[in-house]
Backbone:
């Protein structure tokens, strides 16, 4: 799991307090990902114009054979025939909808577990939409792990600022994390419980 | 597990890592939503194994995610019945090599000790 998936799961818990519907929008023909995104933006605009109270979560899935398509979890039933008209208007093909129990809202998260294809680099694989509800964003997620605690201690020790030397920093923190596990040190401390700054050569070098 | 059994599994294509156990760390690896205060919590362990990689000794970080029944770090630590310096088989789901470090994820088969076969003593 990563932070993005965790944020999606939290958002689906919020949305899942209500009745949910799972929608899938696909194309008859195989389209490029940029074209698909463009058409999705068009369709979402039409949907929100027609149903201003519509709330939901959108997930992009790049299917191995059928290209990019969109899954939606929405909180209200919308007329399928009308939605189909809007889908046709914005250049979409087939749509499918099914009722979804609230506890299955996280089902869509499975698409976020797949390895991200290179063509979707820097894409938002999921997003919330609609007024009057707030979904959890990645920046709202806090995670504390052995690595993050070691990294924080290294940051304090070295006075790291900005993003320079990112990979060297990661490498140093990882080596110290390995030493922490191997020697049973307190997390964020070196041998004998000393702060890293006082450990000298006892710490692994980059 | 005896070396012959291990060899049979390797020949079957079972995905595994053989390495010398170097230590473990259990932690609560959860996510907290600052906005609504929701939490996703689970307990996991990171095992450190030393093995050979392209002719040199390397350390592999093997992550084990515990089932829901293991609800505390203490419970997780109680499962660490491994001896540092002994060789074990780590059954894994996947592994990856990222910037000079090997990571793997332990599967449900877990970790098994390899029995060392001692040669009979000379008369």
Residues:
């Amino acid at each position: 799991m990563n932070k993005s998936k965790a944020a999606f799961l939290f958002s689906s818990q919020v949305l899942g307090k209500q009745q949910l519907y799972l929608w899938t929008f696909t194309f008859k023909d195989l389209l490029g990902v940029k074209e698909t995104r463009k058409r999705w933006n068009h369709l979402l605009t039409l949907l929100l114009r027609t149903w201003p109270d519509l709330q939901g979560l959108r997930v992009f899935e790049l299917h191995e054979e059928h290209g990019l398509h969109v899954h939606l979890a929405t909180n209200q039933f919308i007329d399928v025939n009308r939605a189909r008209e809007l889908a046709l208007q914005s250049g979409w093909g087939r749509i499918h909808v099914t009722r979804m129990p609230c506890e299955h809202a996280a089902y869509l998260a499975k698409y976020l577990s797949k390895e991200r294809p290179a063509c979707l680099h820097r894409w938002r694989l999921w997003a919330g939409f609609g007024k009057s509800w707030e979904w959890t964003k990645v920046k709202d997620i806090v995670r504390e792990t052995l690595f993050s605690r070691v990294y924080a201690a290294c940051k304090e020790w070295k006075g790291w600022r900005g993003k320079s030397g990112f990979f060297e920093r990661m490498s140093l923190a990882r080596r110290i994390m390995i030493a922490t596990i191997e020697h049973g040190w307190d997390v964020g401390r070196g041998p004998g419980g000393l702060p890293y700054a006082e450990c000298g050569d006892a710490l692994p070098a980059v | 597990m005896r070396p012959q059994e291990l060899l049979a599994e390797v020949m079957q294509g079972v995905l595994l890592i053989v390495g010398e156990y170097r230590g473990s760390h259990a932690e609560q690896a959860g996510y907290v939503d600052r906005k609504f205060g929701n939490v996703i919590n689970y307990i996991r362990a990171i095992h450190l194994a030393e093995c050979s990689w392209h002719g040199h000794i390397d350390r592999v970080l093997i992550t084990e995610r515990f089932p829901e029944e293991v609800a505390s770090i203490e419970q997780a630590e109680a499962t660490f019945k491994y001896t540092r310096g002994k060789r074990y088989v780590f059954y894994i789901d996947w592994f990856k090599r990222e910037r000079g470090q090997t990571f793997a994820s332990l599967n449900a088969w877990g970790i098994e000790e390899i029995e060392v076969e001692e040669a009979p003593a000379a008369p």
